Amino acid sequence: MFTMHDPWNTFETRFQNGRYELTSIEFTVTNLCNLRCEHCAVGEELLEKEGATLPLDLLLRRLDEIESLQTISLTGGEPILHPKVVRETIIPLLRYAKERGIHTQLNSNLTLPLSRYEDWIEDLDVLHISYNYRDVKDFHRITYKRFDREVSLSVAEKRFEQMKENAKALTKQGVFVSAESLLSPFTHQHIEKIHQDIVEMGCQRHEVHPLYPSDFAKGLDLITLDQYRDTVTRLLEIRDPNVWILFGTLPFFPCSDETTDRDLWLRLAQEPNVTVRPDPDGRNRLNVNAFTGDVIVTDFGDIPALGNIRQDRLTDVFERWLTHPVAKQYHCFCPAAHCTGPNILVANAYYPDWDFHTRTAKVAVGN
Fold first, then answer.
1. Helices marked H in the chain — which ranges?
2. pTM for this structure?
3. Facing residues of 208 across strands?
């Protein structure tokens, strides 16, 4: 287990090697889910019936070819929903990673019975959940927003309570649970209550990300940068100092012309138990669809597949991506500021007129 060390952070690899290198693979292992969250970045790909995955031997062979591999993430859908996925894909991948000394993360909504997690979770490094609610009414509205049939409040309450009790039980067993909140016009107003609940569930880390304007979330409004900055500041003031706060794909940069943005960047670098994770997608990570074999830069982007593991080595696909016009547009790097440039969706949403390559960091954050 790791504390305040984030092997998904792409900065160190880029700084040490002088170039971006493939260190992380994310597998989409299911297209099934028992929820339909309004913010879901892959909601339109969710199915009612699962297809057949590619042979496990092929997945492992492609991983064997990546000498620089440091992390594996498993996502969906809800990866734990189908026992066959757990038995034939998740458990073998987690055991492979453990034997190779590779860190692992699994993304789950944690709403299934606790017994569904206990048989394999000892081999997992990070259990990642999403938490954007004040109470069961929020959970009911948000998680069933796009469901194709009516779901009662009582059903939602059962799953909401199951999620919270599971988190408490697993963290007591020593499982590292990281709860992610997506800042939206709704959640940013209630970040204090959301953080309090995450602390009470025993989660060791609270991740804070922008709402990604893709898939189900394409029609949702984004908060302004002023609202985002205010939310981050409020969270820093009230946070539990024992819980690691991780800001992912932060929409503020050390090359900003705004003093407030540069001051915030410096503050986050100096705050204890707080880290900023540069965007890993395309800088050290690729996503592999375990059904089709398609390889993409991110599981919620609009860039077409870059290759397919049936015939392509993942390292070759990554090198192909580094020459892609989009990669060349956004892959800037400021070592003194510990900045690796913007997430593509964040840049398009908040900084469509910026040419990041012509900008220079105006602050340094030390070693």
1. 11-17, 56-64, 83-85, 91-100, 115-118, 136-143, 153-172, 191-200, 225-238, 259-270, 314-322, 325-330, 344-350
2. 0.95
3. 181, 247
pLDDT at 1: 44
**Interval 226-275: pLDDT, tens:** 999 999 999 999 999 999 999 999 999 999 999 999 999 999 999 999 99
Contact residues for 26 (Cβ-Cβ < 8 A; gap 6+): 72, 73, 74, 75, 285, 286, 287, 288, 299
Domains in the chain, CATH or no CATH each: 11-358 (3.20.20.70)
Dihedral, CA atoms, 208, 3, 134, 224, nearest 10 degrees? -10
Place of tokens 């794909």: 249
Q: Would you tell me the crossing angle of helices 191-200 and 225-238 to the nearest 10 degrees?
A: 40
- Is the CB of residue 276 less than 8 Å from the CB of residue 269? yes
Burial class of residue 34 (count of CB atoms within 10 Å of its CB; 0-12, 13-18, 19+): middle
163 vs 170: CA distance, rounded Å: 11
CA atoms within 13 A on the CB side of 264: 25
Q: Which helix (H) or strand (E) holds 180?
A: strand 177-183
